[in-house]
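ok trying this again, last paste got cut off
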Amino acid sequence: MPEYKQFPLSDTAEGLTEADILAWRVKPGDTVTVNQIVVEVETAKAAVELPIPWAGVVTELHVEPGQTVEVGTTILTVDVDPDGKAAPAPAAAASAESAPAPAEEEMKPLVGYGSKAAGTTRRARKGAAAAPAATPAPAPVAAAPAPVAEAPRGGYVPLAKPPVRKLAKDLGVDLHSLTGSADGGVITRDDVHAAANGSAAPKVSTVDTAGYDPATRERRVPIKGVRKATAAAMVQSAYTAPHVTEFLTIDVTPMMELREKLKKSREFSGVKLTPLVFAAKAVCLAAKRTPDVNAVWDEAAQEIVYKDYVHLGIAAATPRGLVVPKIRDADSLSLKELAVALTELTDVAREGKTTPAAMLGGTFTITNVGVFGVDTGTPIINPGESAILAVGAIRDTAWVVDGEIKVRKVMQLSLSFDHRVVDGQQGSEFLADVGALLADPAVAITY
């Protein structure tokens, strides 16, 4: 006989409480194998693909793409014994084995899955009833067809919670014909009952799939996922760390000449060697001479923590918003290794595949505004760090060299730092060091 297991949304990174369902990789009736990717979700940190820990047949998808669900919510049900080959439980133990399994046993963490450690529980929200230890598996129904998730029309997914969707299905109400009365257009039980009873004419939404309303000529996009997390982090940083920003304009003609020479060498054959790679190397070298920029203010412990390593964050613009993945121990890498690591990091970020773990634990960040043709800016420090360097566009500029005006490759740097940790002297020395290394890469042998 069928044996059902329920697949909950697990915490894919420490402290996350919810995620958005982006896309299902399976549908009811599909056969799945252990560790097969079944759904893609977007957390506050990144898009994540979730594998399933059992083999079997998918019987129901409980949520639709576009919905936001809390950690612990059942999102999929699988029949792990579709052929009825599992051995029946002994009669004496039948009552014990029929009880629902604890949540930790029902859904065990997978290698690389990112779940919290066993025994970790979420604190209940104020005023909310305590959640049961586990959701009992649905009772099998003989010859019952597998439930089919409601297919979105033209990509539009009605905003409604799973119980409301079930009510609408039971009453024969098409959610696509309703506009919710709750905040954000969410459909409520009252909306469904009103439509079923005919006491209120169903309201047809004029808002398209992109959130555009022709009646108001406005487009509204929910604040969630990466965008929501980025906004919260920037506000926290701006109102917590006293920012100071300094600027430096430098002639990087020698650096660009070295770049062209290295690109033609056998060692760098096939390696993407960008000016950002040189900036990354300069930051790692300069941070050794000015460790303050690689330290962090620990408010809770009332300590300044100096890091003997550089986990270099690279700000990357992606379709889902700004992310800052890290190159671990960047200070231990050669110029070529940095180039390879940087290429891999940016490629993964642009594909939206950066894992939450890859964005944790940074010590210093570089943001390359030059790729957008921008000369400089005043970047905001990432929480948990004390400085960030903005690298501007490289332009042909009239420059005085040995008393003569010549056309040179010139760029601007801007350094924002936390004045609680970094004094003006240290910030200035660090920025000057980075500038010197980019203006004349040969200086590196003196560091």
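PB: full thing came through this time. Residues 296 and 384 are 6 Å apart (CA to CA).
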